[in-house]
Amino acid sequence: MAEAGYRVTGRVQGVGYRWWARSLAVRLGVSGTVRNLPDGSVAVHVRGADDRLRLLATSLAEGPAGAQVTSVDPIPFSPDGISEGEFSILR
């Protein structure tokens, strides 16, 4: 089981990015959280199989229609709020 954290920057708030990321994570079968950050970016913390996390990271760079992702940068993994088998949107 692998763990990873990502900070997604660009136009990622107010465009449904968190809901899109949750839907993607559920389809991939990974646990984790997503939340808006005060600086306008989005933080994603995930736990799952290596190959699933690689696919998630690649997809985070695309985002939903309406988003404009400028970067996906690794950040330290934080298990706060993660329930095994679930992916939650945090406020």
Write up this protein.
This protein has 91 residues and is of the alpha+beta class. Helix content is 25%, strand content 38%. The protein has 2 helices and 5 strands, in the order βαββαββ. Strands 4-1-3-2-5 form a 5-stranded mixed sheet. Strand 2 (31-36) and strand 3 (42-48) form a beta hairpin. It starts with a strand and ends with a strand. The model has no long low-confidence stretch (mean pLDDT 96).
Topology:
Elements: E1 2-11, H1 17-28, E2 31-36, E3 42-48, H2 50-60, E4 68-75, E5 87-90
Parallel strand pairs: 2-5
Antiparallel strand pairs: 1-3, 1-4, 2-3
Question: What are the main properties of this structure?
Answer:
25% helix; alpha+beta; 2 helices; 91 residues; five-stranded mixed β-sheet
For the termini, the CA-CA separation is: 26 Å
Question: Main beta sheet, described?
Answer: 5 strands, mixed
Mean pLDDT, nearest integer? Answer: 96
How many individual helices? 2
